[in-house]
Amino acid sequence: MFESIGEGCYIEPPLHANWAGKHVFMGDYVYANFNLTLVDDDNIFIGDNSVIGAGSIVTRNIPANVVAVGNPCRVMREIGSHDRKFFYRDEKIDWENLT
């Protein structure tokens, strides 16, 4: 379906894409929340370790290590060290008990 998709990517259904995602390149460990729409008239690159918000419409490249949301999808912020420790505000990720 995609031109290429990296290791460890997770895409919540449903996913909508014209050209069946033929021009989409996803890096490693991309997380795309539900109801993502890809408008890929030209090549779209989604960088490593990026998070795409629910209901976003991606029409252009998304750099690595960012949270991007909206219509059209835009970078909201970079992913930092806090995000690697907490999943929501100050609620810690329990890395030892993840399956």
- CATH class wording: Mainly Beta
Instruction: Please give the count of helices.
Output: 0
> CATH topology, which one?
UDP N-Acetylglucosamine Acyltransferase, domain 1
Strand content: 35-45%
- Flag low-confidence runs: none
User: What's the CATH H-level superfamily name?
Assistant: Hexapeptide repeat proteins
Can you count the beta strands? 13
CATH architecture: 3 Solenoid
Largest sheet: 5 strands, mixed
Distance from N terminus to C terminus (CA atoms, Å) equals 28 Å
Q: Over the alpha carbons, how many angstroms does the gyration radius reach?
A: 14 Å
Shape: globular
Major β-sheet strand ordering? 2-5-8-10-11
| Total count of domains | 1
The pLDDT mean sits at: 90
Query: How are helices and strands ordered from N to C?
Result: EEEEEEEEEEEEE
The portion of residues assigned to helices is: under 10%
What structural class do the secondary elements suggest? mainly beta
Please give a structural write-up.
This protein is mainly beta and 99 residues long. It has a single domain, classed as UDP N-Acetylglucosamine Acyltransferase, domain 1 (3 Solenoid). Helices cover 0% and strands 36% of the residues. Strands 2-5-8-10-11 form a 5-stranded mixed beta sheet, with no helix packed on it. A hairpin with a 4-residue loop joins β10 (66-69) and β11. The relative contact order is 0.16.
Element layout with pairings:
Layout: E1 4-5, E2 10-11, E3 15-17, E4 24-26, E5 31-32, E6 36-38, E7 44-46, E8 51-52, E9 57-58, E10 66-69, E11 74-78, E12 86-88, E13 91-92
